[in-house]
Amino acid sequence: MSIASTIGRIAAVLAAVSAVAALAGVAQAGTSRPPSMSNAEYRALMLRSEARNQKYGLGTQRAVPQGMTAAEYRALRIRGHELNRLYGPAESLMTPAALRALTLRGEAMHKTYGLDKQKAAAVTSQPTNSTRGFAWGAFGIGAAVMFGLALLAGGFFVRRRLLATLRGLAPGYRTT
């Protein structure tokens, strides 16, 4: 076995290890639940966080529609609230038969798609990203991948140089 083929095999192993490290990093980044937390604890934390976001007007609920200033949006909400107070909410404008039909349609859709009343009430949006501090795990994965790529590039450079020397295309190194 020649030195060139040994270096080629080492480079192939390093490429495989780098690919596995990169894929493991992507798989780990997809889960935002801390490993020390059970699924029930994490779900409770997300539900509590969502309730607080709604209570204090944080998150996506705070967004102003595109093309409106915050003052215009606030005025529109106040106007809607006052119209509801004066004339009642839109549901009261429906006839009892239309309201009953709408309710039955909603229940049928819940049954069709497998949602019951408890599940429908528990559906909330969950944040995909935590903003607490620096993501050291992602940094470590990125550093490991970059180190592997640097080793891979170095292996290819050494192999190319060695093959060129063995073929007589590059000057040999003097030892004296």
Q: What Rg, in angstroms, do the CA atoms define?
A: 31 Å
Major sheet size, sense and barrel closure: none
Mean of residue pLDDT?
76
Give a count of the beta strands, DSSP E runs of length 2 or more.
Answer: 0
Secondary-structure element series: HHHHHH
Strand content: under 5%
Q: Give the termini distance in whole angstroms.
A: 28 Å
Number of helices: 6
* Assembly state (oligomeric): single chain
SSE-based structural type: mainly alpha
Low-confidence runs: none
Global morphology: elongated
User: Helical percent range?
Assistant: 55-70%
Describe this structure in words.
The chain has 176 residues and is mostly helical. It has a domain at 1-31 and 138-176. Helices cover 66% and strands 0% of the residues. The protein has six helices and no strands. It has helices at 3-29, 39-56, 70-87, 96-112, 117-122, 136-166. α1 packs antiparallel against α6. The protein is elongated. 1% of the residues are buried.
